[in-house]
Amino acid sequence: MPKSDHNAAHYFIETHLEAGRGEAIAFIEAASGKRISYSTLSANSSKVAGALLGGAAGAAMSRNEGRWWAIPLGAVVGSKIGCDAAGG
After folding, report:
1. 62: which residues sit within 8 A by CB, 6+ positions away?
2. Among positive and negative, which fits the CA dihedral 62, 66, 71, 73?
3. Pair 74, 57: CB distance under 8 Å
4. 60: which of 8, 31, 32, 50 is 20 to 30 A away, CA to CA?
5. SS3 28
6. What is the pLDDT of residues 59-75, one digit of tens each?
7. Quick one: CA dihedral 66, 84, 79, 13, positive or negative?
8. Is 72 in contact with 48 (CB distance < 8 Å)?
9. CA-to-CA dists, residue 69 to 6, 20, 30, 57, 62, angstroms
10. Residue 79 pairs with which residues in a beta bridge?
11. What ranges in 8-86 are assigned the alpha helix state H?
């Protein structure tokens, strides 16, 4: 088993990308039958992680009434950064 520092996303997604299996099917959605590749799964995971971190950064850096726009803005910007970081 490859070293993954106990990071499930790395073990279940990134190890396949590193092995050159980015376009291989990671799973098939039961309801729609849509096939999701490891590279798509990695990009979507990065978007979600970026949105969570961006929203948290927006909350931490804003004050009182400014939070109503800072948290969603941070989430949107973080999602974009996460997508770009994953190559999407």
Report:
1. 70, 71
2. negative
3. yes
4. 8
5. strand
6. 888 887 777 778 888 88
7. negative
8. no
9. 35, 41, 37, 12, 9
10. none
11. 8-9, 15-18, 38-61, 67-85
Tokens of 41: 């799964």
Q: What is the value of pTM for the model shown?
A: 0.69
- The pLDDT score that the predictor gives to residue 28 is 93
According to DSSP, the residues that pair with 36 across neighbouring strands are 27
Q: 15 is written with which tokens?
A: 């190890």
- At 52, list the tokens: 């969570």
Closest-CA residue to 22 (of 7, 43, 2, 5): 43
Residue with tokens 């970081």: 85
What separation in angstroms does the CA of 59 have from each of 50, 53, 66, 69, 77? 14, 10, 9, 9, 13
Q: How far apart are CA 10 and CA 67, in angstroms?
A: 32
